[in-house]
Amino acid sequence: MRLGFLYSRIRKDEKLLLDALEERGHDVVKVDVRDPQFSIGERPDELADLDLALNRCQESSRVRYVSMFCEHYDVPVVNGARATATCADKVRGSLALADADVPTPRTEVSFDVESALESVESFGYPCVIKPVTGSWGRLLAKIDTRDAAEAVLEHKQTLGSYEHSVFYVQEFVEKPGRDIRVVAADGEPIAAMTRSAEHWITNAARGGEAEAFEVDEEVRDLVERANDAVGGGLLGVDLMETGDGYTVHEVNATCEFKALNDAVPDVDVPARIVDWLEAKAEAAE
């Protein structure tokens, strides 16, 4: 397989994938997406003669546009433009999950501070205000009082970016000190873990403790439905336990898996991902 490895930064996750690809003897063309010029008409030389492109960019704008250009050039790419665009934007992601009847936390979006405050008051305290783009649990705010809501919303309004004037307000889900991350390929779980912390944000990137999680039928069904809702691919599906089942609060299109790989000694996560990439390349032929 001649695979285009598209990246903007090589983290441990990318190193694990590159090592697994090298062990299989695949021809890997590493492309730092900051280098080529992506012409509207002509395909850059770096993307020529590829069986498959793997988009591992982290920045939400780059990951979206790179997949769009690959599809424009008729280069098979994972993840595709629909999934990357949907997962990079929390509003689009929430709408996609809701349209597919996937359980997800109650959410309201406003474009004015006073309107957003009405959402906060209707949800009650605590509730959560999130940026519409971003990862690793950054810039999330748990709101306990109206004074805090007013301060956070005013701060967001003055940050300058138009995205900060899109106020994404979500109910606070009382979870048992953990959430669940499932890494799945086209809806089929590869492995899963819980991420536990005393803090309400339990992301592994924020210090959450990772432990292996056994995927049951309910979780498997939700992962498959969430995959279909956003457009499919190699995804990180995040769920919370609610007492009555599970709710899917986010789907990630450039998911990290290094913590998961350490938490599941019986599963070689990068090797399983390469298995999937090989099947995708064969199907593309």
Task: Give your account of this protein's structure.
This protein is α+β, with helices and mostly antiparallel strands. Helix content is 35%, strand content 25%. It is built from 9 helices and 13 strands. A 5-stranded antiparallel β-sheet has the order 11-10-9-12-13, with helices on both faces. Helix 1 links the parallel strand 1 (2-7) and strand 2 (27-32). Helix 2 (60-72) runs antiparallel to helix 3. The chain is globular, with a radius of gyration of 19 Å. The protein starts with a strand and ends with a helix.
Summary?
The chain is of the alpha+beta class and 285 residues long.
- Shape annotation: globular
Tally of DSSP helical segments:
9
- The count of strands amounts to 13
What is the distance, rounded to the nearest whole angstrom, between the alpha carbons of the first and last residues?
Answer: 11 Å
Which H/E pattern describes the elements? EHEEHEHHEHEEHEEEEHEEHH
Percent helix among the residues?
A: 25-40%
* Arrangement of strands in the largest sheet: 11-10-9-12-13
Rg measurement, Å: 19 Å
Helix/strand-derived category reads alpha+beta
**Strand count, sense and closure of the main sheet?**
5 strands, antiparallel
Low-pLDDT segments, ≥5 res: none
**Proportion of β residues?**
15-25%
Q: How would you state the average pLDDT, rounded?
A: 92
Task: Describe the structure using short key phrases.
285 residues, 9 helices
List the helices and strands and how they pair.
Blueprint: E1 2-7, H1 12-23, E2 27-32, E3 52-55, H2 60-72, E4 77-78, H3 81-87, H4 90-99, E5 107-110, H5 113-123, E6 127-130, E7 141-143, H6 146-157, E8 167-171, E9 178-185, E10 188-196, E11 209-212, H7 217-230, E12 234-241, E13 246-252, H8 258-263, H9 269-284
Parallel strand pairs: 1-2, 1-3, 3-4
Antiparallel strand pairs: 5-8, 6-7, 6-8, 9-10, 9-12, 10-11, 12-13
Helix pairs in contact: 1-9, 2-3, 4-7, 5-6
